[in-house]
Amino acid sequence: MNIFTILAIVFVYYCGVAISGVLARFGRDWEAGGFLLGIGVGILLVLSPRWYITNEWHAWSPLRPRCKNGKCDAKDYELFGRQGGNALFRCRCGTKYIRKGLRFMELKEDGSCSPYMRRRWRLGRWEKDTDAV
């Protein structure tokens, strides 16, 4: 368990205490219900930014580039094997690719690779790969 997980748990707990206290001040006899409501609100406040950031990041920087034909997105690839520790993918169009580190290369029928797309850093955007293999 890391420090962020501990902070999230403490934050959720204090949301429960705070909402329970607010309801008690207004004369409501809902301490237990307010505590549970506060925990629910705290969980939403903790998870919503994480969910939003994760979804927006993958929209900006998908796990795999569009295929060479421009018809397939990251979700349209199928992992069909491994070769020397590198993942082999097939897009919906049937084109085969190999991912080697930050490079995504087309896998030819004879087993050779031709450059297709690459990333400059691990979470960066895909760009055309012009370097020789």
Provide the fold topology.
Blueprint: H1 3-25, H2 31-60, E1 78-83, E2 86-90, E3 96-100, E4 103-107, E5 113-118, E6 127-128
Antiparallel strand pairs: 1-2, 2-3, 3-4, 4-5, 5-6
Helix pairs in contact: 1-2
Report on the structure:
By secondary structure, the protein is of the alpha+beta class. The protein folds into 2 domains: 3-60, no CATH class; 74-128, no CATH class. Helix content is 40%, strand content 22%. The chain has helices spanning 3-25, 31-60, and strands spanning 78-83, 86-90, 96-100, 103-107, 113-118, 127-128. The chain has a 6-stranded antiparallel β-sheet, with no helix packed on it. Strand 5 (113-118) and strand 6 form a beta hairpin. Helix 1 packs across helix 2 (31-60).
In brief, what are we looking at here?
With about 130 residues, the protein is an alpha+beta fold.
Residues in β-strands, percent: 15-25%
Uncertain stretches: none
Query: What is the helix content?
Result: 25-40%
Radius of gyration: 24 Å
How many β strands by DSSP? 6
Tally of separate domains = 2
Strand order of the largest sheet: 1-2-3-4-5-6
The biggest sheet, with number of strands, parallel, antiparallel or mixed sense and barrel status, is:
6 strands, antiparallel
Total helices: the number is 2
- C-alpha termini separation: 42 Å
Write down the overall mean pLDDT: 84
Task: Supply the helix-strand structural class.
Answer: alpha+beta
Order of helices and strands: HHEEEEEE
Backbone shape: rod-shaped
Keyphrases for this structure?
133 residues; alpha+beta; 2 domains; 6-stranded antiparallel β-sheet; 40% helix
